[in-house]
Specification:
single chain; about 140 residues; mainly alpha; 5 helices; globular
Length: about 140
């Protein structure tokens, strides 16, 4: 006899649990951090990992977590700095990144010069992307 659907619970897949996903993100970020900044290998690696996460997000292989019904009142204040960052980064990229008007990526390059800092930034990027995939 088949049970009613409201009494059954969906068991998360083994690879979807934090015990698996956190070490995978850590290993991917360690590999990505060892690649030289702005090299062809680093760009291909970033496009590959980002493309795989986009594929996971668009396919329905990853169970979704519930999204909030509406944004909180304080979320509107995040739009202003994000919009300013987008406008400044887009304008400096369109004009060409010069020493007088560098892009934020060029300004962050000395900080991300070492592999440890690059791995930490890459880990943050992958973790944020994984949260978006789960939504």
């Amino acid at each position: 006899m088949e049970q009613p659907s409201e009494l059954t619970a969906e068991v998360p897949r083994a690879w979807d649990r934090p015990v698996v996903s956190i070490p995978v993100i850590a290993v991917l970020s360690l590999v990505g951090g060892q690649l030289p900044s702005f090299s062809t290998a680093a760009n291909l690696y970033t496009i590959g990992t980002g493309g795989a996460l986009i594929w996971f997000g668009l396919s329905h292989r990853v169970p979704r977590r519930p999204t909030p019904c509406r944004l909180g009142d304080g979320a509107v204040w995040w739009i202003v700095p994000v919009a300013m960052f987008t406008v400044v980064e887009g304008a400096t990229f369109a004009m060409g990144s010069t020493d007088d008007f560098p892009t934020f990526s060029k300004l962050a390059d000395p900080v991300l010069d070492g592999p440890v800092a690059r791995s930490a930034a890459y880990c943050g990027w992958l973790a944020a992307f994984w949260v978006l995939v789960r939504r």
